[in-house]
């Protein structure tokens, strides 16, 4: 089978090898669609903090069951999506139902080889039937589930003022699910094309470009109080540190993005707001189900989100192009 290995930052190579053999309790999956996300681009750049090289990327996956273990709810031919966060089920986090931050987590395409390949073996409990949605849409469940999880972490409620900083795919997902909760959403980003997407595709009423006067504009939009919940989805240290300035007194700051470094805030600014500071990592099966239900209800503009696509054979050539801001990528999908 074909697979694409990132051997070191900036180095991708197509390799050929045998089709993997499913171990006890595993499904052999024929990969059909792979969503490309910021994590994959961080791996290519060498800025993903949880990864060692070489690595087969790819964790936004949909495909078909080839073989399934006895007693599984899956059968050959079933169309499935992967929940790529392989949790242990027994650690302190898993015992609390927080499988998304399992202390021994193995994320496909990060901690272990992922699905940028024709076939992949996955423990059966981490594959779910697509329930009638397309393979394209199923490959977009994962990044949307991260947004849905972040909104749940922030306890967003109808009528709250919410700011999403960073309008890449994860920020788009956060803005979408905050809007579905009935929040009044604003988005801050440096790219006009992404702000236009939020406005036109998601119906976000307030978009603000990063630059001189952006803080004053956000203050005016929020009636002078700033925002009940602020989400950072930038992956940029300076932006993450600055985002605290936009949190209302008594508000919450949710860090969805991650950087391989320390971040810091002015303690007086943090304390005077009695800020609730939250990290949001990955997603749970419930978050995936929430996104699946929203897709089936026609609430997710997946066709507009899927702005780029390529084949597995073309991926090595197109990935550097997709990483350029001028490409205007929201969500790219690789077809196998």
Description:
The chain has 2 domains: 2-139 and 301-335, Quinone Oxidoreductase, Chain A, domain 1 (Alpha-Beta Complex), CATH 3.90.180.10; 146-279, NAD(P)-binding Rossmann-like Domain (Rossmann fold), CATH 3.40.50.720. Helix content is 28%, strand content 28%. It has helices spanning 38-45, 92-95, 135-138, 141-153, 169-180, 192-201, 214-221, 237-242, 267-272, 285-296, 302-305, 315-322, and strands spanning 2-8, 11-16, 26-36, 55-56, 60-67, 79-82, 85-86, 106-107, 119-123, 127-129, 161-165, 184-189, 206-209, 227-232, 247-255, 276-279, 306-311, 331-335. Helix 12 (315-322) links the parallel strand 17 and strand 18. The mean pLDDT is 95.
The count of β-strands is: 18
**Sheet bearing the most strands, described?**
7 strands, mixed
Q: Looking at the structure, what is the overall shape?
A: globular
- What is the radius of gyration computed over CA atoms, rounded to a whole number of angstroms? 20 Å
How many structural domains can be distinguished in the coordinates? Answer: 2
